[in-house]
Design brief:
By secondary structure, this protein is α+β, with helices and mostly antiparallel strands. The protein folds into four domains: 105 residues, no CATH class; 109 residues, TATA-Binding Protein (2-Layer Sandwich), CATH 3.30.310.80; 107 residues, Tick-borne Encephalitis virus Glycoprotein, domain 1 (Sandwich), CATH 2.60.98; 101 residues, no CATH class. It contains eleven helices and 21 strands. The strands form five sheets. It has a six-stranded antiparallel β-sheet with strand order 2-3-19-20-1-21. It has a four-stranded antiparallel β-sheet with strand order 4-18-10-9, with no helix packed on it. The two termini are 69 Å apart.
């Protein structure tokens, strides 16, 4: 027996090559998207990010003070390993100039392409996983199960059967008992039965998504920090000002100092050093605190800010944070106390701040111009072996264009000043301070984004772990013996012991036993 097919009436067609290829592409895309949205894949990415973050903590990063010394002390093999060996290999193979490229530099790991790429993929994983699972969680909020059968109530994790009074007001009484136990009730009347559904904390089902939002905000902060943050330092002495900061940048095996412009002017008005022993030197082990008084002039915003930068209290302005970093222990004085004798023979005790001016009894004006702790210079510039205060003097009858005379004030035991000087001054005391302070400057526009994300994450985690979605169904129906009863069933998504106590209190309030049956316990 033979058969033949008439193509005109044959309904079985061979798969077309293009359609099969398109199907394979679609299937591959689906598998890829399922991988991207899978929870195990997200956990694996998170573990990799944690390992890379630990590496960044164990290996000193380029934006940390002392990096140049740390890097110089590394053996050549570690210098190569820490400074992006992938880029080095690509340079050797291709001959391309890849300076500035950071694929995986262990000394700048948070700005590396690998770290930022993992952040981006993990963020995409969180978004896709949330999209996949959100409808199921949203169902608990918008599509509540308001009705139930007696069999459904009897098979819940917590269940009990209570005698019913079969009165018309019983549903309202049950609803009142639910409210008294912290559960919000809804009554549904049906021809054969009545259901009171009560719940609390339905929003807890969405807690995981608030956690996701907090993580995404923190990841965004990390990206913003990696792209636009700057770290550097400024060195200030009284009367000095600057609108730039110096920062170290690392480009493979080169460490160089870059200048970064500040959007405002920083002026030093005063520096001070609080010593443990005033008679001691400027050593750090004899210092309680360094602080620098600054005036920030912001022409863009048209405002001026006065502030102090202490050792343990930084100053914040427009995303820039100023810390005490180091000091230059060249012996100087913040203030001096002088015994000044005028040409008339009168002696006055005068205290002057750096740059300060005082008027004597006869009208002579004196100004504290400079101070050297060791006028002889050379080694020991940080000591106070030969203290000299330089004082500018203007006689009372001096004109506006008069040039002041500079005299030197030394301790009484030192050589007296020139007899022809307009006044004689003896240095009787001074407040020790270094020549200048170096402030570490950090600009991190992602800091506030990180703080917001952290608050969201902590609040979300607290809502997830310290609250639970608790649901109770009270079904008024006839039992197999024909008697009308209350079939009570309850469920919670976490913290079963706490819900068990609440469920027992509700059952007792409805006239049932003080202990209830818990399934799967």
């Amino acid at each position: 027996m033979t058969s033949s097919r008439n193509p005109e009436f044959d309904t079985q067609t061979e798969p077309q090559p293009k359609a099969a290829a398109a199907g394979r592409i679609t299937s591959a895309i689906d598998r890829f998207l399922r991988l991207l949205s899978s929870v195990p894949f997200g956990i694996a990415l998170l573990m990799l990010l944690i390992l890379m973050s630990m590496t960044g903590m164990l290996i000193l990063q380029t934006n940390v003070d002392g990096f140049a010394e740390y890097y110089a002390a590394l053996p050549p093999s570690k210098q190569i390993m820490y400074t992006d060996p992938i880029v080095r290999i690509l340079q050797k193979w291709t001959g391309a100039d890849l300076r500035g490229v950071n694929i995986l530099s262990l000394v700048d790991i948070y700005r590396s392409w690998v770290f930022l790429g993992l952040l981006a993929v993990l963020s995409l994983n969180i978004v896709l996983a949330s999209i996949d699972h959100f409808p199921g969680a949203w169902r608990y909020v918008r599509r509540k199960k308001l009705t139930a059968t007696k069999q459904y109530a009897k098979t819940r994790d917590f269940n009990s059967i209570i005698a019913s009074d079969a009165s018309d007001g019983e549903p309202l009484q049950i609803a009142a008992a639910c409210r008294a136990n912290g559960l919000e009730p809804t009554i549904t009347y049906e021809p054969s039965r009545t259901t009171v559904f009560a719940e609390r904390n339905a929003w807890n089902r969405l807690g995981a998504y608030f956690v996701h939002v907090g993580l995404l905000v923190i990841f965004l902060a990390g990206f913003v920090t990696s792209k636009w943050s700057h770290n550097g330092s400024i060195t200030l002495q009284p009367g000095g000002e600057t609108a730039t900061m110096q920062g170290i940048s690392h480009d493979l095996d080169q460490v160089k100092v870059d200048q970064f412009a500040l959007p405002f002017l920083v002026e030093c008005t005063d520096i001070q050093q609080t010593l443990i022993r005033p008679e001691g030197g400027l050593e750090s082990n004899n210092t309680v605190d360094w602080f620098t008084r600054v005036r920030i002039t912001d022409r863009e915003l048209g405002q001026v800010l006065e502030g102090d930068v202490h050792m343990n209290r930084p100053l914040d302005y427009r995303g820039y944070r100023f810390f005490q970093s180091s000091y230059q222990p060249v012996s100087r004085a913040r203030s001096v106390t002088l015994d000044v004798t005028t040409s008339g023979g009168a002696t006055e005790t005068v205290s002057l701040m750096r740059g300060g001016v005082a008027t004597l009894g006869d009208g002579t004006r004196i100004r504290f111009a400079d101070f050297l702790g060791n006028a002889r210079g050379g080694p020991g510039a940080e000591d106070y072996n030969d203290p000299v205060a330089k004082i500018q003097v203007l006689p009372a009858n001096a004109g506006e264009n008069a040039v002041p005379t500079t005299i030197e004030a030394r301790p009484a035991a030192a050589t007296a000043g020139a007899a022809t000087a307009p006044v004689q001054a003896v240095l009787t005391g001074f407040e020790k301070v270094g020549a200048s302070h170096t402030l570490s400057v950090q600009y991190d526009p992602g800091a506030w984004i990180f703080y917001i994300g952290s608050v969201l994450l902590i609040a979300a985690l607290a809502s997830v772990f310290f609250a639970s979605h608790q649901r109770v169904w009270i079904v008024m129906d006839r039992d197999s013996d024909g008697e009308r009863k209350l079939f009570v069933g309850g469920h919670t998504n976490r913290n079963r012991p706490a819900f068990g106590r609440r469920f027992a209190e509700l059952v007792a309030a409805l006239g049932g036993p003080s202990t209830v049956r818990e399934e799967n316990s």
